[in-house]
Amino acid sequence: MSEAFKIEDANLVQESNIEKEKTILFQRWNDYQQDGKSVSHEEVSVWLKSWGTEAELPCPTIS
């Protein structure tokens, strides 16, 4: 396979992954609009700050 085809192939895979991510994000947004459930910025911030420490916290859950 030529280098040009490899690059084109990689670009198609990347575009496909971007479209999948967009679909997931739009679904999450729609879910939020329906039920209003979310994880607060504060909960995520506290969780991230615990990474790599002795007291690492579990991932926050949707409330």
Give a brief description.
This protein has two helices and no strands. It has helices spanning 3-35, 41-50. The longest helix is centred in the first third of the chain and has 33 residues, at 3-35.
Tell me roughly what share of residues is in helical segments: 55-70%
How many domains, as an integer?
1
Order of helical and strand elements: HH
Largest sheet properties: none
Radius of gyration: 19 Å
Fold topology:
Blueprint lengths: L2 H33 L5 H10 L13
Structure commentary:
- Helices cover 68% and strands 0% of the residues.
- It has one domain (3-50).
- The termini are far apart.
- The model has no long low-confidence stretch (mean pLDDT 91).
- The chain is built from two helices and no strands.
- The chain has 63 residues and is mostly helical.
- The chain is flat.
What characteristics describe this protein?
single chain, 63 residues, mainly alpha, flat
